[in-house]
Design brief:
The chain has 464 residues and is an alpha/beta fold. The chain has 3 domains: 70 residues, Winged helix-like DNA-binding domain superfamily/Winged helix DNA-binding domain (Arc Repressor Mutant, subunit A, Orthogonal Bundle); 117 residues, Aspartate Aminotransferase, domain 1 (Alpha-Beta Complex); 212 residues, Type I PLP-dependent aspartate aminotransferase-like (Major domain) (Aspartate Aminotransferase, domain 2). 40% of the residues lie in helices and 14% in strands. It has 14 helices and 18 strands. The protein has a 7-stranded mixed sheet, with helices on both faces. A 4-stranded antiparallel sheet has the order 14-15-18-17, with helices on one face. The protein has a 3-stranded antiparallel sheet with strand order 1-3-2. A hairpin with a 2-residue loop joins strand 8 and strand 9. Helix 8 packs parallel to helix 9. The longest helix has 23 residues. The chain is globular and about 80 Å long. About 2% of the residues have low confidence. Bound molecules: pyridoxal-5'-phosphate. Pyridoxal-5'-phosphate (PLP) binds next to helix 6. Pyridoxal-5'-phosphate binds next to helix 6.
Length: 464
């Protein structure tokens, strides 16, 4: 194997950290398998045009992160076991390395945060005392965590004071608590015609009526919303204006302004889910910035740092935030202080920014693979998104295509799973590009889907 030279282009921060981050990513992606011998630090310094001090420091940090180990007289090697595996993940969420290829789950690239977690846990233990993390949080913990939330939301252009922030167990919990706070049984909730599927189940559990609003290429259609609001008495609208789930559309500023204006006119609360919002580097500002008094803005660290942290942040007017806080108390008292503390540290010390950059690079890399695979097909995707939306050629039904994909060992989700109106079966499928840890398996899965499309529908009973 040629000597390992990390790609540092596009990275920021101290050089030695750039090197060790690149090392971690290459181990996670499989480019550096366990046992690989790394170049001597002087050779690497020469290849990167940095001082040997920098590469020595990077290797020391790599050892501290349990990524590599030095053997006296032999060199430095990638560890056979280390901080990158994901032991203990629930069986149905475990990242597959064999068997069926799973393009059905919309998760970020796995393991990128594991080295940072190892460092942070060691620091927490050094700094002690840990007893505080076994107790309910104190006022000063709450202030520290809330301030981290304010900083995280600032990236999206959202301004907030402490009374307006609620910390949740991820965005999913934020959505549920927002719905509990804003609606009462029997209320009408508007959503995009194709929406994040758990919201349908939440509405069902909360005895809400759901009404779908038409989508177009930019996401939720403002004219359709306007028309629907006339006399319908809807209480709230749940929507994903950036990287819409599942169609990947991102709404332009003009459309956002119109939706804000319609919400004002019809006294509608906007529940804006911006869980993917930090991934595209230059996305438009959230609608919540235009109507802060009638918007509940929801995001989390799941897509940038890792979904296992279970840390989300919600911003709403102080009075709504109080009601959402009450729903958090009711459902779980509070998010686990240890997890929020880890996320807060990462937000404060810049680790969160570095991990977000790393997720962006991974997403862009995988989107490029998908673009090449489906160059001749009707695909919607964002260069920094985690999934894509494939409209099937005439002749295919989405259910039929999914059945064929399952038969050939690739798991995907058909568009109908996102439809609020069960009679709507969009002729499209969602493909998630980041759940599979191994890029080669992703490429193989996409190739299989490509081959299915080229072969055309085989089973007449599955044809549209
Ligand atoms: C649109 C959307 N909202 C919310 C969530 C939930 O995110 P979290 O893991 O932060 O609960 C997801 C997760 O996939 C999602 O796709």
């Amino acid at each position: 194997m040629a000597i390992w030279i990390p790609t540092l282009a596009g990275r920021s921060g101290p050089k030695y950290l750039q090197i060790v981050d690149a090392l971690a990513e290459d181990i996670v992606s499989g480019a550096l398998p366990p046992g690989t011998r790394l170049p001597p630090h002087r050779d690497l310094a020469y290849a990167l045009d940095v001082s040997p001090n920098t590469t020595s420091r990077a290797y020391r940090a790599g050892v501290a992160r349990a990524l590599i180990r030095g053997e006296v007289g032999r060199g430095t090697f990638v560890r056979t076991t280390g901080g990158t595996s994901l032991p203990g993940a629930p069986a149905d969420m475990r990242r597959p390395t064999a068997g069926a290829i799973d393009l059905s789950r919309n998760l970020p690239c796995p393991g990128l945060a594991a080295p940072a977690l190892a460092e942070t846990l060691a620091a927490l233990q050094r700094e002690g005392p840990l007893a505080a993390f076994t107790d309910y949080q104190t006022d000063s913990d709450i202030a520290r965590h809330t301030d981290a939330g304010i900083a995280w939301l600032n990236h999206a252009g959202i301004a907030a004071d402490r009374r307006e922030i609620v910390v949740t167990n991820g965005a999913q919990h934020g959505i549920l608590c927002a719905l509990m706070a804003v609606t009462r049984p029997g209320d009408l909730l508007l959503t995009e015609a194709l929406t994040y599927a758990p919201v349908k189940a939440m509405a069902d559990r909360l005895a809400l009526k759901l009404a779908p609003v038409l989508l177009d290429d930019e996401g939720l259609c403002a004219d359709a919303l306007d028309e629907m609001c006339r006399g319908c008495g809807a209480k709230a609208l749940y929507l994903t204006p950036t990287l819409q789930t599942p169609t990947t559309a991102t709404m332009k500023p003009g459309r956002r302004a119109r939706i804000a204006e319609i919400a004002e006119r019809y006294n509608l609360i906007l529940i804006e889910d911006d869980v993917f919002g930090r991934l595209p580097p230059d996305r438009p500002k959230p609608i919540a910035t235009l109507v802060p008094e009638r918007a509940v803005y929801i995001t989390s660290t799941s897509k940038c740092l890792g979904p296992g942290l279970r840390v989300g942040f919600v911003r709403a007017s102080a009075s709504l935030a109080k009601a959402i806080h009450h729903a958090v108390n009711l459902t779980c008292w509070m998010p686990a202080p240890l997890m929020v503390d880890i996320a807060a540290r990462w937000i404060r010390d810049g680790t969160a920014d570095r991990l977000t950059d790393a997720q962006r690079r991974h997403a862009a890399d995988r989107q490029a693979i998908a673009r090449a695979a489906f160059a001749d097909h009707d695909v919607r995707a964002d260069p920094y998104g985690l999934h894509l939306w494939l409209t099937l050629p005439a002749g295919w039904s989405a259910d039929g295509f999914r059945a064929e994909a399952t038969a050939r060992g690739v798991q995907i989700i058909e568009g109908g799973a996102f439809a609020v109106d069960p009679g709507t079966r969009p002729n499209a499928v969602r493909l998630c590009l980041s759940h599979e840890p191994d890029k080669a398996r992703l490429a193989q899965g996409l190739e299989t889907l490509q081959a299915i499309l080229s072969d055309g529908p085989q089973d007449p009973s599955l044809v549209l």
